[in-house]
Write a structure and sequence with these properties.
It is elongated and about 75 Å long. It has two domains: 260 residues, 3-Layer(aba) Sandwich (Rossmann fold); 66 residues. Strands 1-2-9-8-3-4-6-5-7 form a nine-stranded mixed sheet, sandwiched between helices. It is an alpha/beta fold and 336 residues long. The protein binds S-adenosylmethionine. S-adenosylmethionine binds next to helix 6 and strand 9.
Length: 336
């Protein structure tokens, strides 16, 4: 099978089932992220997405719907074999053939962790039914080892949003609102997965230097993001046309190029917690609080705003307001 090696990452132009069997040892992969062909409408799949034909890469290889069940069983068995005990797999699937994938997963030792719904924009327009705008992401693990789940890789557990809700909790809910990428004028595989979606899965479920495999490379988006996050990448693409075009793009991908774009998770601790209040802090507190209340903010929101602005916790703000003689819920002029 033809292959290309780029900075130690290896990509094969061929069928992932025979390719994995020949080239990937048992238990050697830390994470699989993959988006198999959908088995719907053959090569007309892209018409669903209302795209400019000239920019959709030809040569995308579909699987006939009648073969989809057997095909799913075969590649998922290979995925099971190559994953290390404790390794994770994310499979992106539409709903039409989802039952085949769920059935195949049940035939393996792989265990469900989450069934995620990815809600995307640009759903297929309909006029006599609801608009379809989601995919399923099946997140499974291989039992027998410790699964990587980097709980605070994106948000500290104490970090709060503007509504005082936990950012970490929200990021880990199993419905993900992530937009597709629109890249006008660029050649792309039908159905390229957005970087943001891939970054999220890779951050939570792997560490630097881990091996990330994509059985169906398509636009090589999984490989590109994995390399961008300093992971090692491996994978298969059966179409020679897609493979040649995308491998050329991958040669320009700098390892770690995405690391500087990642958010640094906070501790959730207010930065000025425990620090003595100055006279200037107290004056700012009172004037900002009365100003916010006068402009119509609720007491709760005003306190949250001041907490962020002054780097103090909610209780510290409330206590100091009381000490300054400002009654909770007070309007301007009421505070003395
Ligand atoms: C849905 S696309 C993957 C899209 C990819 N995740 C991306 O973001 O660009 C599925 C890809 O699998 C390829 N494919 C189909 N059968 C295959 C097989 N048996 N082995 C490897 N690749 C295959 C198709 O040619 C297609 O490019």
């Amino acid at each position: 099978m033809r292959f290309e090696e780029i900075n130690g990452n290896v990509f094969y132009n061929g069928d992932c089932i025979t390719g994995a069997r020949t080239h990937i040892p048992d238990g050697s992969v830390d994470l699989i992220i993959t988006d198999p062909p959908y088995g719907i409408n053959g090569d007309r799949l892209h018409h669903h997405y209302n795209r400019d034909e000239r920019f959709v890469v030809g040569g995308y290889v579909e699987v006939p719907a009648s073969d989809y069940g057997e095909f799913s069983l075969r590649w998922i068995r290979e995925a099971e074999r190559i994953l290390r005990p404790g390794g994770s797999i994310y499979i992106v699937s539409g709903y039409t053939n989802l039952y085949h994938i769920l059935y195949a997963l049940r035939e393996t030792c792989l265990r469900e962790v989450n069934h995620i719904i990815w809600r995307y924009n640009f759903g297929v327009y309909t006029s006599r039914k609801y608009v379809s705008s989601h995919y399923h992401i099946l997140f499974y693990e291989k039992p027998g080892g410790e699964r990587t789940f980097n709980l605070e890789s994106r948000y500290g557990v104490g970090e709060k949003g503007p509504d005082n809700g936990s950012l970490n909790y929200r990021d880990r809910e199993d419905v993900w609102y992530i937009n597709r990428e629109y890249k006008p004028g660029q050649a792309k595989n039908k159905n390229e997965l957005p970087t943001e979606l891939l970054v999220k899965m890779i951050q939570y479920s792997s560490n630097e230097d881990d091996l990330v495999c994509d059985m169906f490379l398509g636009g090589f988006s999984t490989a590109k993001v994995a390399i961008g996050l300093n992971r090692r990448a491996i994978g298969f693409e059966v179409s020679g046309e897609v493979f040649d075009l995308k491998i050329a793009e991958l040669r320009d991908t700098r390892p770690g190029y995405l690391l500087s774009t990642l958010r640094t998770p906070g501790t959730g601790e207010p930065v000025n917690q425990g620090r003595p209040w100055t006279d200037a802090d107290r004056t700012t507190l009172v004037s900002r609080f009365t100003g916010l209340i006068a402009s119509g903010e609720t007491k709760k929101d005003a306190i949250a705003t001041l907490g962020r602005e002054l780097g103090r916790g909610r209780w510290a703000i409330e206590k100091m307001l009381k000490q300054q003689g400002v009654r909770p819920g007070a309007r301007r002029g009421d505070e003395t």
